[in-house]
């Protein structure tokens, strides 16, 4: 009879299959929420998300709050039964108004983070360029992603400190194919990076508009994914294409960590100064790929597993720099000052910033 689940009672089917049965056999099929949050004090930077991995039959979620020199993490995983169930252990996502308003809850546990917050978009959700990348013929990335800037309200408790939230942040929803779960045998791809080179993802929020900048560039200068778009909070105004970007990064000497950047868009005459305020080294503890025992989509057993971690930033920085780093950042141009996400990663060599191999950091500041 198959596996009927609650979504089968809604008119959302794309194929004759049940919702629980994906028509795609790729083990790396995924569907995820990502959020970040900060307030005017810039005292903390919270990152949280929830993902489903239909062909691995797992779902997991996490929250990671950088406060002072610590990152407070709660993470949870369970088998995936019902695609409509967007909860994992103490963490759940509620869609109040699709593409506009969502609620994220982290129920109190013995661990150091609890939260109940509501996000409301200040722009219409934006569909970003589709990301497609092959490695030795294998499709390793084929994803769509929507993104949105907005405001957060609610409560956050972290490390015994209660914070009333009236802040900002951005979110995205992505789905498709990307590496998830337990590592696959490398075979002919032994030693090859799945996302080589430089990754930049900077959603910026200003007083009356937002800017989205993406650049995935390999060490040979080929750009595989780009976006340079200004979106007004007044939804009647058309979006502005800022044109091709020219970037300049100040990378911390001996590391792969960006301190500041300048983005220039010659076609539109825009030059943005970008400065890291508070980096969150999310590649450790949250499932983004460095941990051998906890990766997005990794099976953790037949029951719900919830864990808490408190990581010292100075102790994890040396390893976490090899993954994605999410900075709370300040952005300024033409009298506008805003904040948002400066997401960066350098994978393998990237000689334009002095990273000469896959091991060492930048050889110059």
Could you name the key traits of this structure?
single chain, 365 residues, mainly beta, 13-stranded antiparallel β-sheet, 9-stranded antiparallel β-sheet, 1 helix, 22 strands, 53% strand
What is the residue-mean pLDDT, rounded to a whole number? 96
Task: Return Rg in Å.
Answer: 20 Å
Number of domains: 1
Strand content: over 45%
- Helicity level, as a percent range? under 10%
Task: Characterize the quaternary organization of these chains.
Answer: single chain
Largest sheet: 13 strands, antiparallel
* Number of helical segments with 4 or more residues: 1
Order of helices and strands: EEEEEEEEEEEEEEEEEEEEHEE
The structural class is: mainly beta
**Total beta strands:** 22
Distance between the termini: 62 Å
Give the CA-based shape: globular
Stretches where pLDDT falls below 50 for ≥5 residues? Answer: none
């Amino acid at each position: 009879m198959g596996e009927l689940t609650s979504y089968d009672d809604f008119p959302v089917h794309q194929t004759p299959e049940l919702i629980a049965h994906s028509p795609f056999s790729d083990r790396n099929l995924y569907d995820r929420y990502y959020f970040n949050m900060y307030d005017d004090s810039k005292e903390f930077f919270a990152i949280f998300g929830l993902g489903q991995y239909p062909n691995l039959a797992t779902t997991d979620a996490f929250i990671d709050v950088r406060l002072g020199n610590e990152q407070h993490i709660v993470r949870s995983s369970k088998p995936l039964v019902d695609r409509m169930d967007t909860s994992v252990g103490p963490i759940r996502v509620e869609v109040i108004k699709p593409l506009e308003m969502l609620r994220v809850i982290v129920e109190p546990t013995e661990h150091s983070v609890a939260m109940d917050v509501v996000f409301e978009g200040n722009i219409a959700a934006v569909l970003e360029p589709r990301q497609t990348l092959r490695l030795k013929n294998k499709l390793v990335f084929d994803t769509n992603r929507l993104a949105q800037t907005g405001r957060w309200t609610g409560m956050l408790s972290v490390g015994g400190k209660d914070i009333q939230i009236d802040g900002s942040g951005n979110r995205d929803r992505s789905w498709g194919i990307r590496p998830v779960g337990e590592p696959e045998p490398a075979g002919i791809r032994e030693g090859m990076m799945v996302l080589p080179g430089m990754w930049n993802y900077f959603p910026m929020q200003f007083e009356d508009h937002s800017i989205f900048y993406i650049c995935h560039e390999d060490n040979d200068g080929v750009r595989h994914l780009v976006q340079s778009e200004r979106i007004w909070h007044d939804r009647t105004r058309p979006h502005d294409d800022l044109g091709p970007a020219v970037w300049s990064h100040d990378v911390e000497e001996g590391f792969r960590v960006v301190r500041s950047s300048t983005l220039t868009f010659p076609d539109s005459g825009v030059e943005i100064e970008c400065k890291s305020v508070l980096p969150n080294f999310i590649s450790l503890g949250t499932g983004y790929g460095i941990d051998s025992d906890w990766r997005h989509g990794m099976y953790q057993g037949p029951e719900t597993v919830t864990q808490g971690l408190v990581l010292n930033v100075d102790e994890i920085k040396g390893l976490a720099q090899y993954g994605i780093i999410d900075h709370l950042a300040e952005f300024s141009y033409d009298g506008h000052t805003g904040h948002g996400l400066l997401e960066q990663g350098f994978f393998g060599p990237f000689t334009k910033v002095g990273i000469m191999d896959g091991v060492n950091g930048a050889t110059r500041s």
